[in-house]
# Entry
Amino acid sequence: MPAPRSTFNATSAKRRGGVVASALRAAARFGGEGLLLASVLYSTPAYADPQGNVSIITGLCGEGTRDELWQSTCWYNALHGDVILGRDRNSDFGIGPYLDVGTAGFDDLRLGGGGSLHIPVHPYVPAVLSLGGYARRFSDGWEPGLAGDLFIGSRSYNFHSAYVMTGGVSLGARYGVGGSKELTLIIAAQLDSSVIW
# Structure
């Protein structure tokens, strides 16, 4: 005698559909957790290591006030150090802190610091915009001010070390917010400190 045929009706379809739906829900629940676990176990590490530099800035500066921009010309010198974070290749943007110590005409002492933004205009010739503040020590005492610098030159990502060499042109401005109304405009070369070591 032949085996009885299974009948397909609304009740059996509903039962089969419920089994399929519950299986899909379980797969989705465990699939999401499995995907997260797989991405953690098999992901590659990020190589966005900090890249630091210490450089010498030397060149001309014009000293003046807010009313008369360039009253005298003098020699500007500074030691500038920064650390750029968030980059893992030449074409990446980066951001980080900077510190500098400088003098205009050897008549004062300027201590500054702030933040730098690395802009990959070209992979091998980027721009670095630095904005911050400074304190100026001169014959009348200390005075606060605002500082801004734009570096354009060689500063590629170093794949073998945390130190990156630089060389290029630095354009800067120092704006005193105290009683002297001091304004200094800077046109200088920025050279890696390794040139003197």
